Amino acid sequence: MIKLVLSDIDGTITDGRRVLSSSASEQIRKVQEKGVAVSLVSGNVIPVMYTFRTYLGLKAPLFAENGGAMIDEKITQFFTMDKPLAFFRYLEKNGLARGIMTNQWRLCSMGFDLLGPFDGEISDLSARYDVEITDSGFSWHILNVGQNKGFALHYLMEKYGLRPEEVLVIGDNMNDIPMFVDGVRKAVPANAEEELKKRADYVARSGHGNGTAEILSSLESF
């Protein structure tokens, strides 16, 4: 029996334009009303997660910055900004990247748009600065080592005392892979990257938020 659903946001409970899906929102509320904890994890920032938590009426903690910060009754920051900021300043200074608007609200990561190709030089430099880079499909993110959506998953499993088979994770992009771990149930909307589809127990017929609504409406089958 599924007791926790952990879902990505962009491309997963939104449509292709990043507009929140009404069908996904409705199913999220129905699932929570049945006593299942529903949490969201995103590369976005705490103010955005606060909005989702408030207007969807979610009770479980929500995670921003790919699991680096959490909003519950208070805001918890699990990682620091030091290394991501240092690496971003290097990229910016050398004309390799420009920052994105949400950086003004970030606590422990930096978002950026590439000003050229993502090549081996940037990858090698990230290792030298002891950071990791991930692509959300909407922007690039500089993260601390170990700062990913799998961190959020394990935090919630410990908080609620859950076994892997009691958890369903939903995502569509490569930065969701850290929560696609052995044992948990995994589902994806039809627009998901092929690598996620290969790892999924269920691939929805529909894409984006409609696909996630389809998944949540069939929660008992997991």
Cα-to-Cα separation, first versus last residue: 7 Å
Shape: globular
CATH superfamily (homologous) name of the largest domain: HAD superfamily/HAD-like
Q: How much is the average pLDDT? A: 96
Uncertain runs are: none
Number of helices: 7
Strand ordering within the main sheet: 2-1-10-11-12
Give me the secondary-structure category: alpha/beta
Please state the CA-atom Rg, rounded to the nearest Å: 17 Å
From N to C, what is the helix and strand string?
Answer: EHEHEEEHEEHEEHEEHEH
Largest sheet: 5 strands, parallel
Helix content: 25-40%
From the structure above, extract its key features.
alpha/beta; globular; four-stranded antiparallel beta sheet; five-stranded parallel beta sheet; Hypothetical Protein Ta0175, Chain: A, domain 2; 2 domains; single chain; 222 residues; 7 helices
Describe the 3D structure.
This protein is an alpha/beta fold and 222 residues long. It folds into two domains: 4-78 and 147-221, HAD superfamily/HAD-like (Rossmann fold, 3-Layer(aba) Sandwich), CATH 3.40.50.1000; 82-144, Hypothetical Protein Ta0175, Chain: A, domain 2 (Alpha-Beta Complex), CATH 3.90.1070. 32% of the residues lie in helices and 20% in strands. The protein contains seven helices and twelve strands. The protein has helices at residues 22-33, 46-56, 82-93, 120-128, 149-160, 194-199, 208-217; strands at residues 4-7, 37-40, 62-64, 69-71, 75-77, 97-99, 110-114, 131-135, 140-144, 167-170, 185-188, 202-203. The strands form three sheets. The chain has a five-stranded parallel sheet, sandwiched between helices. A four-stranded antiparallel sheet has the order 6-7-9-8. The chain has a three-stranded antiparallel sheet with strand order 3-4-5, with helices on one face. Helix 1 packs parallel to helix 7 (208-217). The radius of gyration is 17 Å and the shape is globular. It starts with a strand and ends in a 5-residue tail after the last helix. 46% of the residues are buried.
